[in-house]
Each structure stands twice: as C-alpha cells, then as structure tokens.
Design a protein that fits this description.
6-stranded mixed sheet, alpha+beta
C-alpha cells in the first residue's frame, strides 16, 4: 500500500492506495485560516501537523490494514506557504504565512526598482527562477519573518532556525527532525531557487538576507526523503515522493510532455 498525504490550503487529506492504484481509504480534516490584518493570511503550524497525523491514522484505521504493509509515504502540499522553526525545540517562531498573504506587497514594489548583478532585479529573478516579482512566493515571506520577528527577539539564535515550505516542515516532523529536505517543485516556488543549476541562488539569498543554513537540501521529487517514525502511523515508513500540489495535479492528469 501507499499512504498519500495531501496537505492543502483548506484541508488535509490522507489516501491509501493498493498496488493496483485503487483507493481503499480516505480521511479529511479542515484547516482554519486567520487574518490578523487586511491582506494577511496565516495558519497555525501545529494544526497543520495535527491534521496530517489525524487523517493519516484515520485512513489506516478505516482500511483495517497493518501499517507495516504500507510500502511508502508520498506528500503533496500547498505551495509557497512559509514556516520558520527552531530545530532545538521544534517550535515555529511565527505562524505559517500562507501563499495568499499580501503583506509583502510594499517590499515587492521596492524590488521592482532594484538591481542585482548588474541587471534589473526583476530580470535577474525571472532568469534564475522563472518567476515574477510578487508577494505570492516564499522569498519575501521568509525575509519578513527574519526581519520582523527573528531580529526583534534576542532569545532566538538564527543558527538554530530552519526554513521550509509545508512539505519540508511535515517531513522534519515526521522524521523526528532527521530530515531537512524539500523537492525541486516546491523549491522552484520559493523565488530563491536557480532552476537551471537546481540549487539555491546565492545572489537572491544575499539580497533577502537569508543565511544558507536555513535552507533545506533539495532532492528530486522521487527520492528518499527520510523515514516517518513509528509513532506517526504505527510503523516506520519511508517517505519516497514529494511534489507541490499544482505539479502533482499536472502529473496526476498524465501531463508528462510540454504542451499537454
């Protein structure tokens, strides 16, 4: 069996598939969003984590299978949503800033007039990441957390902190802090990833004042991401597939070639 964990913006789902690809069990739990200010969209990281544990366990329980018969876990997730947590305690320094959040619109206006490496920043970003300047992406969200939260709290040591999109956060929790990783599809939506070199771009990390030590290792979407601990779902299960929800949906519809 395969356990698929779908952590979306409005809900989390867990689905169990058998070896033929047939769905044998589904569980779903809604996720609340908060709006502290106009244009701000946040979620409680602990609620995201709890929803994945609860739905995964419910799907397994409803199926009646032995968790030891689950060959692998796959994760798909809402993209761009940004979290920063303390690797010593596991606690996030701030709520998850959701992809819909517009608090960094002013920063993006400043970026539109900026230059990097002898060219307009907008041109540099598109050339490196394939993206446009917009609050949608993780870069300005991460910069906001570091400048508005971390730098204002003397109890926080930046060397203890980790950044991740939702996939990275869930993998870190599922593996008991053993894996700080992401996949290329999620990395490509941060606006910090060079899609040609398949690595974090040093110029953009420097521009946003983001230490590289915060960044997860980037793996192929089909890779060994770590092992979910037994307490999560009743058995130690390898995590072997990760993709942001839009890319996952594209492949789910068998769109494998350009233009499909």
């Amino acid at each position: 069996f395969i356990l698929a964990l779908d952590q979306g913006t409005s809900s989390s789902r867990a689905l169990l598939y058998d070896e033929t690809g047939a769905t044998i069990s589904i569980a779903q739990k809604a996720i609340e969003m908060s709006h502290p200010k106009d244009g701000w969209v946040e979620q409680n990281p602990e609620k995201i984590w709890e929803s994945i544990l609860l739905t995964g366990r419910e799907a397994i329980a409803n199926s009646g299978i032995d968790p030891k018969d689950i060959a692998a876990v796959g994760i798909t997730n809402q993209r761009e949503t940004t979290l920063v947590w303390n690797k010593q305690t596991g606690e996030c320094v701030y709520n998850a800033i959701v992809w819909q959040d517009r608090r960094t619109a002013g920063t993006c206006e400043e970026m539109s007039a900026a230059f990097l490496a002898g060219k307009a920043l907008s041109e540099y970003i598109t050339e490196k990441t394939g993206l446009l300047i917009d609050p949608y992406f993780s870069s300005t969200k991460l910069h906001w957390i570091l400048s508005e939260i971390v730098s204002q709290d003397s109890s926080l040591n930046i060397s203890d902190l980790l950044f991740g999109t939702v996939d990275t956060y869930l993998i870190w929790r599922l593996t008991g802090g053993q894996s700080h990783v992401t996949d290329v599809t999620n990395a490509s939506r941060t606006q910090l990833f060079d899609i040609s070199l398949l690595d974090w771009d040093e110029g953009l990390l420097k521009y946003f004042a983001i230490p590289r030590s915060l960044m997860p290792e980037v793996l192929d979407s089909s890779a060994q991401f770590g092992t979910a601990e037994e307490f999560c779902f009743g058995a130690s299960i390898p995590i072997t597939g990760v993709a942001g929800d839009q890319q996952a949906a594209l492949f789910g519809q068998c769109c494998f070639d350009p233009g499909m």
